[in-house]
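Posted in: Structural Biology > Protein-Ligand Complexes

Title: Requesting predicted complex, copper (II) ion in pocket

I'd be grateful if someone could produce the 3D structure tokens for the following input. Sequence and ligand are given below.
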Amino acid sequence: MSIVSRRELLIGGGAVVSAAAAGGLTAARATAPDLTLPIAPHRAAIMPGTVTEGMMSFADGGLPPVIRLQQGVTARIDVVNKLKEASIVHWHGLRVPNGMDGVPYLTQRPIEAGDSFRYELTSHDAGTYWYHPHCNTLEQMARGLTGVLVVEEAEPVGFDQDLPLNLRDFRLGRDGQFISLFKPRSAARGGTLGTISTVNWQEQPVYDLPAGSLTRLRLAVTDVTRVGTYDLVSGDTPLAMDDAKVIALDSNPLPIPIGASNILIAPGQRADVALRVPDREGEEVLLTRRTSKGPKVLARFRAVGPSAGRTLRELKPLPLNPIAEPDLANAEVIDFLFGWSPEGAPPVASICGTLGYTFWSINRVAWEGDTPDPIAPLAVMKKGKSYILRLRNETPNDHPIHLHGMTFRLLRSNKRQLPQLLTDTALLREGETMEVALVADNPGDWAFHCHVIEHQKTGLTGYLRVEA
Ligand code: C2O
Ligand code: CU
Ligand code: CU
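-- Reply #1 --
Done. Output follows.
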């Protein structure tokens, strides 16, 4: 059984449940959407005693909803742009047809102010995903436009609760108002960090959960910049494997679950944690992030009521997603070099905005901006063929490298042991070279970029073409 909260929208077999229309749309016409997703201006109390003006949300009130899809079931989502500027929505990690991927000019025209666009999404993969704009991306995400998207397994795996945690910062001053969304000198380095860390738009929320029950925590780092290391602890003790373990990363199950401490996740990445709530009423588990000053508490999970007495062993293993296994013996190797920009000419003006600087490049070419006439693809792949992408980071900064439309397998790194993992976003650490492999099975032009949005928007973007 999963709990669907007021802010969650459950989509399955054409049914929609939402705060506004609980049960009211199930008899909708065939052409009606399963979900209407506004992009709207917003104000909210993020810091106590203040109201932050100039926010944006995927809701007419409240934070962006958790969108829940059922594995293999098509959902029609009408995005309605109520902003005074163009936008577009990308479904991070979902392997959808190119026309539904939400990237300006590569896959569709931007959704202009006042316009709407219907996305039809079917995911054959289950797991934790998220959604965000891909137009004026830094500003729109920084102001609030990041939401969690869940694709539920066709067969439940046995949790009592399912709790998505949208992890992100806001750059607010003491009065709760936005300060400059980025600093150029930071954009040329690691990126500009936020000032307030939130979980589901709250500082240190407390979640009451039935004692001794099994909860699936879905950590999604939707922040524009922050690479973080997270721990689940009781007091200052890491939880034992019987109490918490990471069962999936970036929506794909780990073949062998790992302990829920030292979880390194970067912008764009996700971690699913199976948590056994403590038995004793009032006992707490904390989600913390490591900082130079010690652990910072982000959220608390508090046991309530008598113990349900469940154990993590009762969970079924997560089913594998149907992702094609690359043929490594016959794979072609493609090299990518992530580095500084060769000359730093400012980007071309566009309806989707620019930050006005060029600092970064892929293979010495800096992305010019989201224009109707994009530069050439970084690589052209043939549909059905296997490729090894060799990702080389020549900079002293971290770059979470994200590919749209396809999932790749981590092979090896020159710096560390990598988990056996299928993913859409690989964290390339400073000076690291990593090899990843995929089957080019989804035709189209697929954005390929760093998910530190200041890097993405100042050159570290390109795209890969898969020819049918
Ligand atoms: Cu989540 Cu192109 O991004
Ligand atoms: Cu994406
Ligand atoms: Cu980067």
